[in-house]
Specification:
Pathway: Porphyrin-containing compound metabolism; protoporphyrin-IX biosynthesis; 5-aminolevulinate from L-glutamyl-tRNA(Glu): step 2/2. By secondary structure, the protein is of the alpha/beta class. It contains 15 helices and 14 strands. Strand 1 and strand 2 form a beta hairpin.
């Protein structure tokens, strides 16, 4: 039967002017049962409303940035006030300096910071800086970790790259990726052996301190420290990609909270308060290599623009004052236990990985601790689950490699409604 919804109409228009009808493959529904995806009209608190007027409980959170939910009043007020003076100037501005000061003050090991417009730019720039500082070229990363879509990072990448069925992208020259080594996550022996063999060529080890792009996968005990030790033993830098994790699991960066301070950070998402923003920074001596002080060039027309900086500052203000993290984690734990119980009651075999207020449901019995085990989860079962939940007004990311994010806007009633939807979904899948 032809879909006559307004979403379908909008998506049909999109297909004619946008490749695949989406401006990011992560928004496509092809991995969970085909198109069209839902076209949203607005967000409010913990909810989406589509162009047909249907309400959804939102666990996408913009793929992470919306820790306060949609359209938080203080964030909107900050954006309006900044916009009244002009959206961007291309000059130094108070808001970007205030945001930089806040990040340096609140993130351990962040001596100086350079703002960017996206997390992809932040990671790309941090890698370039590590190469400039060490005079080496090799980057060690981990299979299934997504660090943006710069050429070198599309080597065994997770998240959207995995969802569309390509670990490596067409159009990436072989010469670009020959200096990128991708290792299994959570395996100290392989990491140590690799660094012993090629450590004198390695500029940096790059990792998410809690992986969020092959689903939520926490590090094993001691693994982050092993990364730091392995990097420093050979004179390489440790970069933590905290684009997802910074200010998500607690106020500040998650690396120090887990006992390991990196040499460099890449950040994004939450620090823009729902607008485009990124940042990279770390040790003072390393940051002196950044132009105009040093020879490592990086620039951005919209980097630190007043709108993103003001939205980011407002978001950090609310997070610092309200400290919603314990409440968010409690709601996520309730959701986790409710989903597990529902699966048990209806004979569905699942595994849930949760870190704080973010969790991933894997369909299968195996523990998930790296990319290989994440890929063993049943994508067909997840697709069916996604369809059934969507039909009941629960919006999950359209990929088995993404997370459910509980925001400060979610209420216990939202969690109850979601668990009941899970029960009905599992009942139909039985």
């Amino acid at each position: 039967m032809q879909d006559t919804s307004r979403s379908a109409t909008w998506f049909e228009r999109a297909r004619h002017v946008i490749p695949g009808g989406v401006n990011s493959p992560a928004r496509s529904f092809r991995a969970v049962g085909g198109d069209p995806p839902i076209v949203m009209a607005r967000g409010e608190g913990a909810y989406f409303f589509d162009v047909d007027g249907h309400r959804y409980i939102d666990y996408l959170a913009g793929f992470g940035p919306l820790v306060l939910g949609h359209a938080h009043p203080r964030v909107l007020d900050a954006i309006r006030q900044a916009a009244a003076d002009g959206a961007m100037w291309g000059t130094p501005a108070p808001f970007e300096i205030l945001l930089a000061e806040r990040l340096v003050h609140d993130v351990e090991g962040l001596d100086q910071v350079r703002l960017t417009t996206t997390g992809t730019e932040a990671v790309m720039s941090a890698i370039r800086l590590a190469r400039a500082f060490t005079g080496r070229s090799v980057v060690v990363k981990f299979e299934g970790a997504y660090h943006g879509h710069s050429d070198g990072m599309l080597v065994k990448a997770g998240s959207g790259a995995s969802t569309v069925g390509t670990q490596d992208s067409l159009g990436v020259p072989a010469g670009v990726v020959q200096d990128v080594i991708s290792l299994p996550y959570n395996d100290v022996e392989i990491l140590t052996r690799t660094m012993d063999q090629i450590g004198d060529q390695v500029a940096c080890i790059l990792a998410e301190p809690i992986v969020g792009n092959m689903g939520i996968v926490p590090p094993r005990e001691g693994y982050l420290q092993a990364m730091r030790d392995a990097a420093h033993k050979v004179g390489a830098l440790l970069i933590f990609d905290e684009v997802i994790t910074a200010f998500r699991f607690g106020y500040g960066a998650v690396g120090p909270a887990l006992g390991v301070v990196p040499d460099l950070y890449a950040m994004g998402k939450i620090i823009g308060g729902g607008l485009p923003a990124g940042a990279y920074g770390g040790r003072f001596d390393v940051m002196q290599y950044v132009s105009p002080l040093g020879g490592m060039f990086q620039a951005g027309t919209f980097a630190g623009n007043p709108l993103s900086s003001s939205a980011g500052l407002a978001t950090l203000d609310v997070l610092r004052e309200d400290q919603p993290y314990a409440r968010m984690e409690q709601l996520a734990e309730t959701l986790e236990q409710g989903i597990l119980q529902a699966a048990h009651d209806y004979g569905q075999t699942i595994t849930i990985n949760r870190a704080g207020s973010a969790l991933t449901v894997f369909f299968g019995p195996q523990a998930v601790y790296d990319y290989d085990t994440a890929k063993q989860a049943d994508g067909g079962q997840f697709a069916r689950f996604h369809q059934l939940m969507l039909a009941q007004g629960i919006y999950l990311a359209p990929s088995r490699f993404e997370a459910l994010f509980v925001s400060a806007a979610h209420q216990p009633s939202d969690i109850d409604e979601t668990i009941e939807a899970c029960r009905k979904s599992f009942a139909q899948m039985a």
